[in-house]
Amino acid sequence: MSQRALERGSSTGAASRYLERLSKALPGPRIWRGAREFWPDGAKLVISVSLQFEAGAQPGGAPRVDSRYPDLPIKSSDYGSREGIPRLLEIFQRRRVHGTCHMAGSAVAGNPPLAKEIVERGHEPAAHGQAWAAQYSVTADEERASYEANIESIERATGVRPVGFNGFWRHSTAQTLEILQDLSFIYHVDDASRDEPSLVLVRGKPIAIVPYTLELNDFVAYEIRHYSTEQYAAELKNEFEMLYSEAETRRRMMSISAHGRIAGRPARAKVLEEFIIYAQRRPGVVFMRKDEIARFALASSITPRQEQAALEADAA
Question: Residue 140: its pLDDT value, please?
Fold first, then answer.
């Protein structure tokens, strides 16, 4: 056998062995019996994964070198829908993880089969505005119309009406929560002031807050802080270890945000899957969709509550 054939066989064997190890790294026991039960079925720590579906919704891109020519490089943003999200979906299926996909309506309209596949694989479709654009500079009527269009886009592609909302960069207006309430949303993610779900009373009725994350957001880590995959892996594990320790006596939740075009890159996807395996080996760790967390928080007597006015005062 030639040296090249030996090297090819060795490489193929290494890849097969790696996939075999992944298949054997199954989730550990779900049940953990502490002094109090903070989560369903005796779980100790909940991890919630957000998958951002924005490809095609982002405006603009890098300035063109010459306006007379088409801006072909901007098509690279399609990497998320062509490669990144499908790769992450395969990882989630291998790891038996279901998460929440925040879908921009125009991105869904541009690729309805992908939106449908995400839901068919057991993930929650959540609203993310019709366009990936700020809502804080629009009128109340324009804001409402955007959310209604977003709902319609998701329902048309997936057959499911979203009940959760994530605003553009978590920004909102004074009327956002009332609009969400009118449109039958039960939760939003844009208040990241706790490491557990909470409730905000809007016109006397509760809406759940299932906190999003910037610290464990792949965009912030890789694009702004310029983390290596090793640094991001360390950040994930360090945050997990602290929350897992605190979960002995408190309800704790860990949030992770992934964008197809960022976390869906091969090296970064590998790091994310290895963290999921790392977490799943601990007793009492479960992954939950945000709508599941929201419904549990709404029904729980120990979920922290605050008035809408308090949020508005903080924002001011």
Answer: 87
Range of the domain at 74: 31-60+70-315
CATH number for the domain spanning 308: value is: 3.20.20.370
**Closest C-alpha among 150, 52, 43 to residue 100:** 52
Give the sign of the dihedral formed by CA 42, CA 186, CA 311, CA 309.
negative
Kindly indicate the confidence band of residue 139, based on its pLDDT and cuts at 50, 70 and 90.
confident
Q: In this structure, what token pair is assigned to residue 263?
A: 């976390």
Look at residues 112, 91, 62, 121 and name the one whose alpha carbon lies nearest to residue 260: 91
In a domain, 198, yes or no: yes
Residue 21 lies inside a defined structural domain of this protein: no
Q: Which helix (H) or strand (E) holds 128?
A: none
User: Residue range 127-148: average pLDDT?
Assistant: 83
C-alpha 268/C-alpha 88 separation (Å) is 10
Cα-to-chain-centroid distance, residue 45:
17
Q: Residue 167 domain-assigned? A: yes
Task: Indicate the pTM of the whole model.
Answer: 0.84
pLDDT-above-90 percentage for the chain: 68
Q: Which two tokens stand for residue 56?
A: 């095609």
Whether 3 maps to a domain, the answer reads: no
Q: Using alpha carbons, list the distances in angstroms from residue 32 to 37, 39, 238, 260, 293.
A: 9, 10, 21, 33, 18
Q: Which two tokens stand for residue 53?
A: 């579906």
